[in-house]
Q: What sequence folds into this?
């Protein structure tokens, strides 16, 4: 089917259409975004605790980490973390008498985006933890709870309703930022779209298709986010009524 300015036959799932190529890129995008988001949440949680309660060297390190990530363009950070990280790994392997390795593009994308997102998640969670009334934590200590139990039963549940809006925005950001990974050879949706367009010269067709797929991902994410926010805020409604 040809609409004049786009050729929908190019989007067919089976050859000569390249719909399967785009869907493979979409699956890779979701994998990278989900992996990077989980890594970023982990870094953010422990980074927030380190900023609030860690010793001074830890606080200084985390302050530098979050400041640099938020000040430098993400594309530059992706290139820096990828090439510096892969270079460091291969230097260690050479020093051990091993052959250098090619870094897996999927794993590299997850790691690079996770490190970048971790800085933003650190600040979101730090603000959420700092907003918890100190009386709740003091009461937990008065009852004899250990630090780990206080963290699990008091801090984490109280923090989540406050952090969810910021963390939700970070998920939407990391979804879009997967497109930046094309510069390190990651085969996600943006890369697959460029490859299909270059092969067929139907750039408009494939970039419009990519736009629709990214939009669908965002709409589904926003739908799920609303339900997640409702779940974590169910206790707040009762407390405020």
A:
């Amino acid at each position: 089917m040809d609409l004049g300015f786009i050729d929908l036959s190019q989007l067919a799932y089976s050859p000569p259409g390249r719909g399967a190529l785009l869907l493979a890129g979409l699956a890779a995008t979701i994998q990278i975004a989900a992996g990077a988001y989980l890594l970023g949440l982990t870094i953010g949680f422990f980074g927030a605790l380190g900023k609030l309660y860690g010793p001074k060297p830890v606080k200084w390190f985390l302050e530098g980490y979050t400041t640099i990530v938020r000040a430098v363009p993400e594309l530059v950070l992706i290139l820096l973390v990828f090439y510096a990280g892969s270079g460091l790994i291969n230097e260690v392997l050479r020093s051990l008498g091993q052959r250098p390795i090619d870094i897996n593009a999927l794993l590299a994308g997850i790691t690079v985006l996770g490190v970048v997102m971790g800085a933003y998640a650190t600040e979101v969670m730090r603000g959420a933890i700092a907003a918890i009334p100190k009386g709740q934590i003091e009461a937990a200590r008065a009852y004899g709870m250990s630090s780990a139990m206080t963290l699990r039963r008091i801090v984490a549940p109280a923090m989540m309703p406050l952090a969810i809006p910021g963390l939700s925005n970070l998920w939407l950001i990391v979804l879009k930022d997967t497109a930046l990974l094309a510069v390190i050879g990651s085969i996600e949706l943006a890369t697959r779209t460029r490859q299909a367009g270059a092969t067929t010269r139907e750039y408009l067709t494939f970039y419009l298709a990519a736009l629709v797929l990214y939009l669908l991902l965002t709409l589904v994410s926003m739908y799920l986010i609303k339900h997640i926010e409702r779940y974590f805020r169910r206790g707040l409604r009762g407390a405020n009524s």
Q: What stands out?
A: The two ends are 57 Å apart (CA to CA).
